[in-house]
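Quick note —
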Amino acid sequence: MVVEVGYAQAWDLEACAPWRPIAAEEARERDAAGLPYVVVYREPDREAPLEVRLVSWRDNYVGLWVYDAQGRRTYDLDMRLLDDPARLLRRYSVGWYYTGPEMAEFDEACPRITVDLFPDGRGRRTEERQGRGGGSYATSPGLRDDERWMDRPAFGEWPLLSAQVHGLSEPPGFEAAEVAEAAEPGDGDAPATCWRPPRPAQPGPINELFRPGVRVTDGYHPVMTVVEPRRVGTLRVPSGLLAVSGPDIDHGDGPRITVPVPPGEYVLDEARVRFGYRCEWRDAAVTTTEPTAVRLLVSDAPAATWEMALGPDDDPRLFIEQQIAGFDTDGATGCFADAGAWEPLIALFERGLIRGESDLDGYEDIDDGSMFMQRTWDEASGGEFMSFATTGDGTYPVWVGRSEAGEVSGVVVLVEGMPELLPEQDGTPTDAAV
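Predicted structure written out below.
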């Protein structure tokens, strides 16, 4: 069997076709420079590709997409280049098992198997059973080392990794595909439908959540208008290291996230939105105000950029598309605290809230209608702790805003998901009842 091998700067997912085909020599140059490119394997008489390999060494990434005769993706493998330059971790994979030729690509009813692997040997295999019975089943993959890792081939020496999927009993012969058009210079103007390397979750319009008059939507309420942030209080961080964590999780190793800030006392406030909706039990249109985020305001300088804070064992090279890092909570609670006094502050929180000790020095419940619920303080160091409510359990990212000078200007936790900005309406924000 003969397989044609072609190269391109990108892969257009919508067209299922290469974008800006390039010659093998140019692809080799891009490979050496770490620039993104794709490799397309085809049978001469088959419209859909056999597989597409997506490479971006500067992102520590190699992807493999396998297609069936109907042009549907059946397998997606995400490989990562880590500390050993000679091998790749099979970081994440999804296999789709279409029940017939008429089933659409990525149909929700399509059974699938997801495998999530980490370099330390941890992993999770999840089988999603659709149709009769449905549900999902998760296990530990129990893979050998050679099943978790792949030797990194040199450029031009990659095998057809999907050969077994396509029923090939012998290695195919490869020949170069003709370059139908010359590639134009430049990398930044690929259409939005083109593949790009996986990115972790992005911050979204955080500044706008604290800007009165901005109109947003959460997908359920069509129009929500940002109102003046509500100042709740202040937090003293004399150690110069801010802790952001879930106070209800075991903290044997200390707080989950820490952010260096100048020693000082900082304002705590809430971002809020006002919106209207139809209250069924009152049979009336009502307007309400709800918080969307909590913030520790470090300076008056506006945030020019936002970045996701990482914990000590978070490795960005392992992040898959839209992955988040942050603190975990099983009790819908987060906190800001002075990391230098973490142990006495969290101990006071546990004594006051969990054990219910009355008249406890260094602890108070906050009952002002805000998202903040408890405060503790350490007399010895002057450090303080403030807990706040989230809207549920799970993992919450911590966003660090930086000024044009690169200094920390604020630290934000979204207690709801990130809403979407709406266009301005004649400069006048409006509330809408549903």
